Fold DUF4124 domain-containing protein.
Amino acid sequence: MKIKPLPLFLVLTFLPTLLSAGIYKTVDKHGNAAFTDKPSTNQPSEPVTLKPTTSLPSPPNIPYSHSAPEPTKHGKPGYNVFSISTPANNSTVRNNGNFTIKVSAQPNLNRGHRVRFFIDGQAVAGPQRALSHKVENMNRGTHLIRAEVLNHSGKVIQTTESTVHVQRTIYRPPAP
């Protein structure tokens, strides 16, 4: 078997660079820490080993179906306005997963109509007359929020959706 000189040359040239890649910590006489990719020549340096990156799986996409709107007492199908106003579609929540879902409906909900809230296909509140639901401690990631208007017999007459991205700070105290 014949070895080609160019690939062998490239491997031998870059091998020391790949092997020496790392992070080093040096502390000066004033107690200031400096992190570099090469060990210090005039002060003691210690190699820094990094913990593995935390990765989380994406939430599953949950398909759903909705029925056609039914006429309201005004004779029009559904409501003129039925939408999730808060959080805005495709917005990011950065307060540890706590937020309130608010729905706007015009005209106001008819007598006997109720609202049901879903997050990622799971019912989280309702049916209820209130047009809001408080969410606490939501996992980080992208979530699909859905609200439905139900008539007096429980039939869905109108739906609305919004996507929200939840960012949460993770604090890992230093190891003792």
Q: What stands out?
A: Residues 81-166 form a domain with the Immunoglobulin-like fold (CATH 2.60.40.10). Residues 5-20 form the longest helix (16 residues). Residues 65-69 have pLDDT under 50 and may be disordered.
